[in-house]
Design a protein that fits this description.
Length: 179
């Protein structure tokens, strides 16, 4: 099986995948902030992945505070991160669950809040234990080509130039180099 857990030493944007809308996490002046959209390249939204054995830590690059249990902390937390799918586990492809150190509780995201649960799950517009990590790479560079796409439950859609308007395609090769 493909291991989609974050890689220690790399930087990520973290979001909770939720049917009511994604929630990106950031350092909001010392507390965990929630936003429906990511502010790309804003250091408050970027988290450095660290590992201590099998446990993961996520340190905010703007303040060096760690993403802990529903808060930010000056010390590492030690998350258990699992990509396992199935009943009571991850629902969406490309997501992982976050559990506390002794694996007794899952972190669940709700719009504008956190909670905890004994089992992982996903309940329409109420809560989700599916968390995603999007690798932070760099700012787009002038003169380079980039593919833009929308990750969606019904299939990813790539954006392209359709004679002056935005078009969508299921594959990035469908419309030559008009991306």
């Amino acid at each position: 099986a493909l291991d989609i857990r974050p890689v220690p030493g790399k930087k990520y944007y973290i979001f909770n995948k939720h049917q009511a809308g994604y929630q990106y996490y950031y350092d909001n002046n010392g507390s965990v902030g929630f936003a429906p959209a990511c502010r790309y390249n804003d250091k408050a939204y970027i988290w450095l992945c660290e590992a201590n054995g099998e446990k993961f830590n996520f340190k905010n690059v703007s303040t060096n505070k760690y993403f802990a249990w529903k808060e930010l902390s000056g010390s590492a937390y030690g998350w258990n991160v699992s990509p396992e799918k199935g009943t009571g586990k991850v629902v969406n492809d490309g997501c992982v669950t976050l559990q506390n150190g002794d694996k007794s509780k899952y972190l669940v995201g709700m719009i504008g809040n956190f909670d905890q649960a004994e089992n992982a799950g996903y309940n329409n517009n109420t809560y989700s234990s599916d968390f995603c990590f999007v690798e932070y790479t760099h700012k787009p560079q002038p003169g380079k080509y980039y593919y833009f796409y929308n990750k969606h439950q019904k299939g990813d859609k790539y954006f392209y130039d359709n004679n002056g308007s935005v078009g969508f395609s299921a594959t990035k090769d469908a419309f030559n180099k008009n991306y």
